[in-house]
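Journal club side-thread
Mid-discussion, someone asked how the predicted structure for our own chain would compare to the paper's figures. Pasting it here so we can look after the session.
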Amino acid sequence: MLKSRTGKIASAIHPEGESGGGWDVLDGRHSRSEVPQRSGWFPFSVGVSVSESEIEASCLGSAFMDDEEAGAAGLLKQLQDSVDAHPGDPSLHFDLGVYLWERGCEGYESDAKERAAEHFLISARLNPQNAAAFRYLGHYYGGTRDSQRAIKCYQRAVTLNSDDQEAGEALCNLLDEEGKESLEVAICREASEKSPRASWAFRRLGYLQVHQKKWSEAVPSLQSAIRGYPTCADLWEALGLAYQRLGMYTAAIKSYGRAIELEDDRVFARVESGNTFMMLGSFRKAIEQFEKALSISPQSLSANYGLASALYGLSKECINTGAFKWGASLLEDACNIMKMCTRLAGNLSSMWKLLADIQILYAICFPWIAEEPALQLDASDFDKSIFSWIETRKSAARSARFSYQKALHLTPWHANIYMDIAICSDLISSLPSSSSHYELTSWQLPEKMALGALLLECDNYELWVALGCLSDHDALKQHCLIRALQLDASLAGAWAHLGKLYRGFNKQLARQAFDIARSIDPSLSLPWAGMSADSLTGEVAPDEAFESCLRAVQILPLAEFQVGLTKLALLSGYSTSSQVLGAICQAVQRAPYYPESHNLKGLIFEARHDYQSAAASYRVARHAICRLSGALPQTCLTDVTVNLARSLCKAGNSVDAVRECNCLTKEGELDVEGLHIYAYSLWKLGSNELALSTAKNLAAKIPQMEKSMMAASVSFICRLVYDISGLETAINSIQKMPKHFFESANVSFVLSGINVLDENGRLNQIISMSRRFLTSHTEIAEMHHLIALSKLIKNSSKFGLGYSSGIQHLQKALHMYPNSYLLRQCLGHLLLLSNGWNDSHLSTRCCIISCPDFSCEGLKSAWEILGAGAIACYAVGNSTPKFSFPTCTDQCLSKTQAVQQLQKSLHQEPWNRKALFLLVLNLLQRAREEKFPPQLCASIRRLISIALSIKSYPEADKSGEYQRFLLVLCASEMSFVGGNQVECIKHVTEASEFLLPNNYLFFAHLQLSRAFALEGDMEKFQREFLRCLELGTDFPIGWISLKLMQLLYSAINDSSILDLSFDGCLKKKEGTHKMWAAVSALLEGLVSLQSSDFTSAEQLLERACCTMDSESCSLLCYAIACIHLAKQGNGQQFVSHAISSLRKVQKTAVVPLPIVSTLLAQTEGSLSPEKWEQKLGLEWFTWSPDMRPAELFFQMHLLAEHSKAGNTSASAVVSCQSPQKWVSRAIHTDPTSARYWKILQKYARPTAILQ
């Protein structure tokens, strides 16, 4: 205690400004090393000794108190003596006053403050610039209740020192107590303008401006205050409030967040932060803030109100996205919160208003969800669920009306509450009653409440629009809407409702009103829905109407709009859209008592081939019709029953379908479509006689049918008769039919399909007549597709279908209709299935990858054709010869595009097994070409493991087992190239156990023989080789691979069995057997070359070249064999053969092949030494820069050396460098060659050699 006092006394004795002084008057900080010493003064060391004595007080007890009092008395006497010695020194009076003031504050002397005030007054008179003296005087007068003098003293202190926080705060407190707010603002503003470090002034000014709601002025003041007090949570909170009121919500959230970081228990900051998040539409973040505020203060009314508001806003978002159940659960939570708030503050109108808003929204959005599954829902369960749903909504609506009435009692001058009651009453009256019929709508109470609102605010255009919507009288509707437009001509809602009103008697005016509304506010749903309503009259195209209605549903998901969207989808062909399915499911939840919503839901499910769900929806629709007890005509029930029978029939439940048709027959309501279903279901059940009898009844009604229904009936009867009675009976029945029955494209397709199976073509005349009714390009393309398929069947042989005739027809048709997706995909599919040598790469050229999502049942998609064609083409498809050099002129040029398209398809549909399967095979092709790079191999292994992890395939997919078989073989190949022979054999053994034809299992045992041969286990290799001979295969590549194994490992001594099997396989390959024989000869020739049997190699390769005269690979190999024979001295004719073959290679090669020019230079140089230089110079251009070998540089050295000797025909490439540099480049590429080093030594200087 004494140490603290001593410091303050010392600071008072040595005020700031004296020489050598290190003292601060305001806070008493000092440094002992800088204490000045004055003669006659009590040395400060006494104060220090006192302080050290205080440290020993714990041991000395009361003895220390005596020393302390003695020291204080001595110090007071010394200060008094100094003042007496120098009465004109203001600093000495101030020091003595400070000492006495502190003695008085500590209670040592009762009159010390009065004596101190006298000295402060003398000091102020002697030195009027001493702000501290005025501050102490202000403290003294404030303590004596003389506020006026205190204000003047404080004001003088602040004027002299604007940074004096103590005086400034005290002054502002006194002014605040006396209500002098304007003077307080003026003082703070003056102080802040004088000194930018007057943080207290900025803080006080900011608070005052926030209090006065001067938000724009408060922001800079609070920002300046925060620089002085960065950890003051109040300042950050006030700044956030100012930002919030200015609409700067992001900055407000950051300020509130900083306040919360400083003090986590600030309720106001969390509540206002939640309100700001609601302003931004971030209701989830707002809920989080309100919940945290309630965890601090559970009874906070503002936090509870904000939480309920945030839940209300989030529920609106959920409802707009179709999540009605989630939205209703959020509203239940919000309702419970607001009920608690009304108990806490039941006299606030806003509480009741929000509670009513929540309850009315709950009544509107509460969805109907059947407790039982739709397939098990009977009529009584349906009635109970509808009754419960209606009562829940009515109860919520009544509660909302009661809450609105409570709010109206508290604030009867609010017109909008009158309108809320009117809307609530209208909702209650619009809900169907619990009985099976609708209540008559009563508009009396809604109209009265709306008129009451208008009495309060007659110029409120929104109230006029609301009255126009609530009224049931057209004249009153029109008057109200026009009155609203008179008040505000840009009111889009009024124009939209006016257009809805005019649709009943003047569609042109209605269209104009909708156009005006849409131009004013495109986000309004009603004009878009009104535009789509004219599609049935043909004034708007179905596609355009669907897009308009879809836009309306996206803006506002009303059940009426959603039902209309579904109707338009069925008309315009968008019935399989997921948006339509979601819309009709939501419509069923919003209007479950409406039979049409269930019926339309069934139609959508049926269009998506979900027949079980469709049947369930039709049953519910029938329950809804029966519940209305005669309010709808009997035809509605008949239509739904027919739909139910059709869906049951498509689902394979023919028994129930026949039962439904029998019920319609008993009631006499079985129409034409019902007869179709009845006959088809009877045929499925095996009741052929009854089916034919029903078909006869159907045929009797054909003359009275419409044209479209007539065509469908004739087509159905023809197909049914063919399926039951056979081809002859069907043709005879068709020939007996009247000719006008065949005037339809659909009938023409059916007749063409039947005529395909008739070898005599007895229906040709009828078909040619019916084909005149093919009008659209789509129908014509479909007919060409059918004709191509018919030619496949009629031109088939014992070796297979007549693909060539079908392909030729499609190629001709494609010239006439080049943009037909159907013809292109059909042609690509047939090319893949045919045996043509070049058909696989041609198939990829038929695909249009950028075409829309076109699919046809039975045909492969564009990406399937592209992927399969890229695999089936044996040529290497690289465009840059980095890993190998392509030699096939008919190579597939779309391999890269195939991989990219398959990856895109797999990304869009990760569950697509076929895309994954084709991607694995394409990547394996690429890996083989690129010599199996590790990264690509790792990707292939990962994809194979994913594909094999799919255990089950659909029963309808017969190729699933074959795909798994190939994937296992791919896994074994990856293990084989990776050197893991154990894993390779494991995979192949698994593949050999698949239940597949021997035609495919052959390749599993071929892979096993490869693995055993690499291990050196010749016994097992021999066993698997013989197993391959036993199984056999229809694929020539399999026999060629087996022959290669026989040549490399001498599997059997007698190869006649293998040759006979290969010849038998080639006989089945019409048109390609010569090419496969040439490939076999090429392979044997290569093996002979490897074994240095050049005579046999020349004969075999000559045979291959005779068939594949444009294949540069076979020509090159033949030339090499001839060169070797010429070197052995077998005659100069082999040199001529080699030169001829090498020249053909240069002409036919897709890209310039390396080594060809070198070989040609050698062969021609042997005949004419003058030509070798020109041919050898061309070799440089056949190599890519990153693949040029060392020998090529050495050849350039030879050319350069020869050019140096005097030959001027060397190329520019050769002459650009010296022979020595060419040798240096060869050594740089291959430093291990001693031959290059010896040549380089010839060019080196003797001194360099010595070094």
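Post-session note: The two ends are 92 Å apart (CA to CA).
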